[in-house]
Specification:
It is a single chain. With 151 residues, the protein is mostly helical. The protein is 81% helix and 0% strand. Helix 2 runs antiparallel to helix 3.
Length: 151
C-alpha cells in the first residue's frame, strides 16, 4: 500500500491492465495453437502456461485485487461509506460466484476464446480506469469524494 500511495492508484491499475491483457492473449494464442489437437502438450508449453498464469495472478494480486477494495472505500463520503462498501462487497461476491460457476462450462464451449473474453474485459477495465478514475494519491480521504464529484 505504501507503493500505491507513492505512485498512485491509476498507475498500478493501468500497468496491471496492460500486463493482465498481455498474459490472457498469450494464454489464448498458445492454447489456440497447441491445445486440442489429439496430442498432449509438451512439457515446455505446459511450463510456459503455468508461468503465464502465475504472472497473471501476481499482476492481479498486486493491483486489481487489493485496489478493488481500496478505491471503492474512497468513493463514498463518510456518511454513506459503510453502506456503499457493503454494496461493493455484495456485488463483488455475486460476480465472483458467477464467474466461478460459469468458468468450466464457458471453457468447454469457448475453449481458448474464454481467455480472449477475459482479455477484452481487462482492456475495458483498464480503459475505464484510464478515462474515468481520477488520481487520489496524496488526497485526504475526507476530500476524495470531491474529486469524483468534480471529475
Amino acid at each position: 500500500m505504501g507503493l500505491v500511495e507513492k505512485f498512485g492508484r491509476r498507475t498500478f491499475f493501468i500497468e496491471a491492465s496492460i500486463e493482465m491483457f498481455s498474459y490472457m492473449v498469450a494464454l489464448a494464442v498458445t492454447l489456440a495453437l497447441k491445445f486440442g489437437q489429439e496430442e498432449t502438450l509438451s512439457k515446455a508449453i505446459s511450463v510456459f502456461l503455468v508461468v503465464i498464469i502465475c504472472l497473471f495472478c501476481f499482476a492481479y494480486g498486486s493491483s486489481w485485487g487489493p485496489l478493488g477494495w481500496l478505491v471503492p472505500s474512497e468513493l463514498f463520503p463518510l456518511e454513506t461509506r459503510s453502506a456503499g462498501q457493503s454494496i461493493v462487497v455484495c456485488v463483488n461476491m455475486i460476480f465472483t460466484a458467477l464467474i466461478a460457476q460459469c468458468f468450466l462450462e464457458s471453457l468447454c464451449h469457448l475453449r481458448y476464446g474464454i481467455f480472449l473474453l477475459f482479455a477484452a474485459l481487462v482492456a475495458f477495465m483498464g480503459s475505464f480506469i484510464f478515462f474515468l478514475l481520477p488520481e487520489t494519491k496524496q488526497v485526504p480521504i475526507e476530500e476524495v469524494y470531491l474529486l469524483f464529484r468534480n471529475h
